[in-house]
Design goal:
about 280 residues; alpha/beta; two-stranded antiparallel sheet; globular
């Protein structure tokens, strides 16, 4: 069984970048529930499958970690709201443009997309921003999991007991979730005006081209920690390619990137971000 788990884990690593050592325990647990003959049939069908086979896609759905919530890493997002977003909006204005694009890679069930959309709307409400109505906004969320993207598209978040999507809303964002946090409602849904500016698409960071270009802000938080070095480099190249010159890449605090071609590190006590260098 150990050999089978290892072979499947290495196939996962090759196809989606997730380090084999992280998926081996999950695969072993799946195999434990099967009779010996069923294990052999199941594992052979997966090892012989193509990346788009339904059986393979169902298998990796059970491997993914979809844990997320609104305003995860709140200090980092507050830094974006107070320092990064105003600069990005100003740069567009100075070029006479009113288009603003955000890509959340590895968006899971969509809470991060909604969190950053609320912050962008707040920034655009400033006198310099002129209001959301003047802007062509696009918020793209991508993930490998079609199942979790369906949840993101529905946009209905339930305040269930325990570790729900609303468990760590910072003080500065409380009013946006007042219905759930303070008025006893069970479900929160996004503002329809923001929701219509959002798209959710499947995307593999390790091998697919960028799903859009000329992006102002890319968030890919707590994703690279799961990748091996080769696939992490491939992902960074894809993320950087999507950015416009001067655009900003935000990684998770534990993602550990030290250098990246075409990007410069911008350090702040609250957050580290990466800016795409202007063309020479």
């Amino acid at each position: 069984m150990e050999k089978t788990s290892t072979r499947l884990a290495h196939l996962i690593e090759e196809r989606i970048g997730m380090q084999a050592k992280l998926s081996i325990p999950r695969i072993a647990a799946m195999l434990e529930t099967m009779a010996l003959a069923a294990r052999q049939t199941w594992s052979k069908s997966l090892l012989d499958s193509q990346p788009d086979d339904p059986s393979w896609l169902d298998f990796i759905e059970d491997i993914f970690n979809h844990e997320t919530f609104f305003f995860r890493h709140p200090r980092q997002l507050q830094h974006l709201a107070e320092n990064v977003l105003p600069d990005l909006i100003r740069a567009r204005r100075q070029r006479g443009e009113t288009r603003f694009r955000v890509w959340c890679a590895g968006c899971s069930s969509g809470e991060e997309v909604h969190s950053i959309a609320l912050l962008v709307r707040q920034s655009l409400a400033s006198p310099e921003g002129g209001g959301v109505g003047q802007w062509d906004l696009e918020f793209l969320g991508t993930d490998l999991s079609s199942r979790i993207l369906d949840t993101a598209r529905r946009g209905h978040y339930v305040a269930s007991p325990g570790l729900n999507s609303f468990r760590d809303i910072p003080d500065y964002a409380q009013d946006w979730f007042r219905a759930v946090l303070h008025e006893g409602r069970d479900v929160w849904s996004p503002d329809p005006d923001l929701a219509r500016r959002m798209r959710f698409l499947p995307h593999n960071l390790t091998c697919d081209p960028p799903p859009l270009g000329d992006v102002d802000l890319v968030l890919c938080r707590n994703i690279l920690i799961y990748f091996n070095l080769r696939h992490a480099h491939a992902a960074i190249a894809t993320l950087a390619q999507a950015l416009r010159p001067g655009g900003i890449l935000v990684l998770g605090p534990a993602d550990g990137l030290r250098e990246a071609p075409g990007l410069e590190m911008i350090c702040d006590p609250q957050a580290v971000v990466w800016r795409k260098r202007e063309a020479a």
